[in-house]
Amino acid sequence: RHCTDVICCVIFIVVILGYIALGIVAWVHGDPRKVIYPTDSYGQFCGQKDTLNENKTVLFYFNILKCASPIVLINLQCPTTQLCVSKCPDRFATYIDVQASYRYKPDQWNYYKQFCKPGFNNPRKSVAQVLRDEDCPSMIIPSRPFLKRCFPDFSTKNGVLTVANQTTFKDGIGKTRNVTDLREAANGINNVLDARSVGVKIFEDYAISWYWILIGLFIAMIVSLLFLVLLRFTAGVLFWIFIFGVIGIIGYGIWHCYWEYDHLKGIPGSDLTVYDIGFQTDFRVYLQLRQTWLAFMIILCIVEVIIILMLIFLRNRIRIAIALLKEGSRAIGYIMSTLFYPIVTFILIAICISYWAVTAVFLATSGEPVYKVMANETQCKYANLTCDPETFNTTNVTKLCPGAQCTFAFYGGESLYHKYIFIFQLANAFVFLWLVNFAIALGQCTLAGAFASYYWASRKPADIPLWPLFSSFGRAIRYHTGSLAFGALILAIVQLIRVILEYLDHKLKGTQNSFTKFLLCCLKCCFWCLEKFLKFINRNAYIMIAIYGKNFCTSAKEAFFLLMRNVVRVAVLDKVTDFLLFLGKILVAGGVGVLAFFFFTQRIPIFAQEAPTLNYYWVPLLTVIIGSYLVAHGFFSVYAMCVDTLFLCFCEDLERNDGSTAKPYFMSASLHRILGKKELSPKK
User: What is the pTM of this model?
Assistant: First the structure.
């Protein structure tokens, strides 16, 4: 063994050091409080501890009607004074009415002035001057906090949009307006609030059922482990049981959908379509429609037919794959520690994701407060120009543009660092992709080295190294970091290009240029195919690196041509094995999912009292199903790597040896029977 791809290894280490430096610079300049806390017109954070706004956690808009202005789309900032308050208004009121009655109704004035600028307490000041200087809002309306900002408290009564059961309100300048004007100012906020309500209910369901979700995932882990252990002894029987088990589960799903479809027959409203009822936040409404269950039944029937046809046409190939799986199960039985290596990969990827996310947030919040002139008059030539709030009142802007204010706009800067924030974000994303692909490559090379040490042992298990997994991990880190980084770099470049194409597609979605759409679609398809091909080549290249210790390019070339010389075997053994393992994942996830369904819907009499009462039973159910699939995928990915490694070693063994005394085969006796005696004839 010797170090491979040293130049790439050095570049990789330099990039990691640079990535750490980028994170440090971002942490120095960034301030995540800009994301956590809303910012008022003076650039101060709402709710920040040890400040005057510590108890004022919500942002209040003086005139939310101005938020419907096109200026909002240009500057991403509502052109009205924004103030930190302790709570949102809970009533309708106008400054004109409050000022007129402040002498005999001081409580109304005391309530209203908490939404005025700090320190303002002069009800004798003329209304025109107060509104011009924006000392107080012209009106307040019942609001509720959302994302720490006060938005109108919309509700629907008999199909009519209302605010506090009113359809009209006074705007404080002598006009009576409809609440739909508020709706336009807070466009789409009602749907967002409905989504927030759903989110709260989902959070409540998680809080109640998290214990049972963990139990479901633990059951999935036990089932996956038992599955892999039993494969060593009864691979054929277990796989056919699992295959027919999947068919049975889907068959039960078809029957259940038909039963629900037939049960809803004649019930009023069940014959409506999904289009008729539109979007509903209560998803149980859709389960009361016959059309929903009919769609589920058709989908399951199609899946059932596809699986049955594949089993019919691939039955002989499945028998061959099962024989190789038995050998893989035997290899894992000797090296049980490999089953838990995915935890190491998961931890490495979690660290990469965390570092990337934190760095991205700090980069996004880098910069100093930038203030701009917000003018009520559209003809003001100083509008949207930067300004200094400390010297703004001494300039001519207030004279030329009455009512203009110097308010906080966004965070930014003119330094070299701030000009290249976007480039830094792009570099952050690229290095993140590189590190994630390196963590995956390290795991694949480590597992391949461990299983290769099993295959090339003359006497199994006597000649297998004492700690094959740790030895393989050490070799990969010590000698082949450069090669693994090289393969990860190629994949990261392609993935970054795909991300950029997706970004461009999203930005150009509103254009009508058909040629541009067609070109982007073709590019996205081509780079998707390229990424899949590179993942396949890299995976087998890492196996060859683990076996022979050569550099990445040589290993990739030898692996590719070796597979091309055995392309039929690749199709018969490797892909059929992947299909069978996928069926195993589906069975584990489906079996645990069915058990969770009966539990959370309180259909198991023994545990009916233990099952929690939920808003949406599908929340923990989907979590258990997806989590079970991921748990099974973690264990089965080790198994798939084992089969791929053994298959590549098997092909290499057939080409290099002929079974003679001088060149004996390293394969076990069971592998001799996989492809028959013809495959074992001496090479000429």
Answer: 0.67
